[in-house]
Amino acid sequence: MSKEFIKNQLRELKENGFDWKKRILQTASKPHARFDGKDLLLMCSNNYLGLTNHPKLKEASIKAVEKYGAGSGSVRVISGTMDLHVELEEKLAKFKGTQSSLIFQTGFAANAGSIPQLAGEGDLIISDELNHGSIIDGVRLSKAERKVYTHKNMEELERVLKESKGKFKNILIATDGVFSMDGDIAPLDEIAELAHRYDAMTYVDDAHGDGVLGKNGKGIIDHFHVHGKIDIEMGTFSKAFGVVGGYVAADQEICEFLWNKARTFLLSGSHPPAVVAACIAALEVIEEEPELVKTLWSNTKYYKKELQSLGFDIGVSETPITPLMIGDSVKAQQFSKELYKAGILALPIVFPMVAKDKARIRTIVTAAHSKEDLDFALSAFEKAGKKLEII
Ligand SMILES: *Cc1c(COP(=O)(O)O)cnc(C)c1O
Question: In this structure, is the dihedral angle defined by the CA atoms of residues 149, 150, 151 and 157, taken in order, positive or negative?
């Protein structure tokens, strides 16, 4: 690849408006934040419970730095497993209701490192077409064969399972729990049932379910009451938990196997103490302050109801991820610009991240938004929506 080629590709991205601008956050990540010197209402963070700036998480980080220093000094399997890492894994397993858990550097690393080990040569991975890019990359890194089914189409999944029976050593079904662009939920109860019937393993990515779905934010397994029926749960500390880090929660043997095999885990330094301590504190805060999840949902319900009564199309969303479906890419970009002028940060998601005619503004409600914040956003959406003839 010559430099000329890169230059041309980059120019093309920019000409089409598909390049990502650099927006510089100059405050903590919270609903009222400052980007590039401008005060904005933040409507596009994954900080579902407002934990990024919670005093208990900050305090835990500071204490951990004082006791353990800034870094861990190694990968986990050599000399980088601190008592803090073990404490986090035990707490997380308890929270998820699994035998064990394993912390990865990020959710991306958890998917990219685990999936290739859980299914290899002679196996088959069956994946929802709208799965997250990190699942897709995990599947690409695997030597297993792959089949993709139409989004949430259980008849198609069953057909693939039926025709694959006896042709592979093992079959792994991988799905997002909550789909990150549309905010809809995978029919995990039906997937578990099909997997049981056709003797397949199941892998669910709960990145947008933790802290959101289930009793007190325990995630999608709890939401569907399918405890013990999903083999591998994967998730992240970068969304509702407000920090950074990925995990796999599963039976002890699966976690121990990945400890030995997952390359993104094995070959990469472990989290610094400040991160691990903040993750532990996040799990404690969720237990101690159940009102956070309740507020998240009452905000979500209010926000969605008002958007719909204004005439916005919010697609198939069932969670705080709320897309305002626009359709046309240029219009979605114009809409986002109008919102910015009105003091709101809400970004357009356009092709190639979603289909060409499915451009949208993806907004995410959090527990940290006040009713005034939501009303402010709604009135700006109304004004811009009318101006651009979206509603
Ligand atoms: C964000 C996300 C990830 C990646 O998690 P990180 O910890 O931020 O790397 C994986 N899967 C899904 C579905 C996500 O939305």
Answer: negative
Which domains can be identified in the chain, with CATH numbers?
Answer: 18-47+290-387 (3.90.1150.10), 55-288 (3.40.640.10)
Residues whose CB is less than 8 angstroms from the CB of residue 204 and which lie 6 or more positions away in sequence, other chains included: 174, 175, 176, 177, 186, 188, 220, 221, 230, 232, 233, 234
Q: What is the mean pLDDT of the chain?
A: 97
For residues 121 and 144, the answer to whether their CB atoms sit within 8 Å is yes
Asked about 180 being catalytic, the answer comes back as yes
Whole-angstrom Cα distance, residue 3 to residue 11? 12
Cα-to-centroid distance, 38 and ligand 1 (Å): 28
- Give tens-digit pLDDT for 253-306: 999 999 999 999 999 999 999 999 999 999 999 999 999 999 999 999 999 999
In whole angstroms, what is the distance from residue 296 CA to residue 179 CA?
18
**pLDDT band for position 1 (cuts 50, 70, 90):** low
- Check if 205 has its Cβ closer than 6 Å to any atom of ligand 1: yes
* Catalytic choice (132, 208, 223, 304): 208
Between the CA of 207 and the centroid of ligand 1 the distance, in Å, is 6
Name the residue of 102, 180, 233 to mutate for ligand 1: max ligand atoms within 8 A of Cβ. 180
Residue 239 is a catalytic residue: yes
Distance CA 125, CA 222 (A): 24
**Is the C-beta atom of 271 inside 6 A of ligand 1?**
no
13-27, 175-189, 224-238, 239-253: which range is least confident on average? 13-27
Q: Is 233 in the pocket of ligand 1 (CB under 6 A)?
A: no
Residue 223: CA count within 13 A, CB half-sphere: 21
Closest ligand 1 atom, CA of 109?
9
Q: What number of H helices and E strands is found in the chain? A: 14, 13
CB of 235 closer than 6 angstroms to any ligand 1 atom: no
